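User: Show me sequence and structure for the first protein, then do the same for the second.

Assistant: Starting with the first protein.
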Amino acid sequence: MSRNRIEIRLEQLKEKKEKAFITYLTAGLPDMEKTKAIIKAQAAAGTDIVEIGVPFSDPIADGPVIQQASYESILGGTNIHKCFATVEELRAEGCTLPMIFMLYYNTICHYGVESFVKKCRETGVDGLIIPDLPMEEQEELKGYLEGQDETILIQLVSPVSKQRVPEIVKDARGFIYCVSSMGVTGQSGSFHREILNYLVDVKAKSPIPVMMGFGITQASDTAPMKDSIDGAIVGTHFINLLREHDFSPEAAAEYCSTFKMELRELS
């Protein structure tokens, strides 16, 4: 089996004994051109992977910050077609940063599952994170993803998935996205003993890298669990930071560069 851009990047980090830094931003906030500029700035600043949130009218797994971002983006006219076009343009302009679509399954169904997967391959979408698609309902999508390496499905686990972790990670690709709390994204960054135990358990069972998300604002937040994760994902805080700096690509680059440097020191 060959490797796609996500897996290649993670293998390179493993060889250097570095942890991955992954960010999330909502596509089209404030517009698609700014989204492109922010992604390019992050790539230059050393961000390893970027999650591009495809806005949806009912983002049930997201907290208020990302819900509001999604709402504003939709009002601005963002849709899946524009998201695909943006990735395609970035690839045409030489951007090799691994890019993941984070979206809800309704969007994929409306587009057409087979057509959606085909479009992901054509435009350069490396991975998919679908928070409302449980393991038991992934068969159709996986059927279209199998036999190719351009686009892979990233699996999520949470503390309530503990008994199912071995089954979830068995055929997973890329990385395992660990939800650190029982609630939605963007909650407190304080980590309890149960969370640490849960991460240790997932790490012990996963054959691929384990990423920690939901609540991280700075690299030091990962220190208590640095031996149990392979990287950090920052979403809500990154959206807030972009707002505070009027969606400045330079501010995004500065934050990402600093986070990556501090994360490297923790490794």
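Switching to the second protein now.
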Amino acid sequence: MPSRLNAAEIEMQLAVVPEWSRVGERIERQFVFKDFIAAIDFVNRLVEPAERAGHHPDLSISYNKVTVALTTHDAGGLTANDFALAKVLSGL
């Protein structure tokens, strides 16, 4: 199991993915698309990298908006895995 990051490590990692925000023990980002179909297409594209990483985000879909939240449930907070997947998903 990956180890939780401390506050300084989290701040350093957030600087690398500035589109993401810390919300308690998770990071999240809202992606906005032109319509519902484009939002669902994005969700479908994130399945493969999440499966490959063995790290699955929490998703919320509202028409053309997809909110992605990442945390490492087993570790009880943020780990390097969360930020690694955030980087990948930011590039989709």
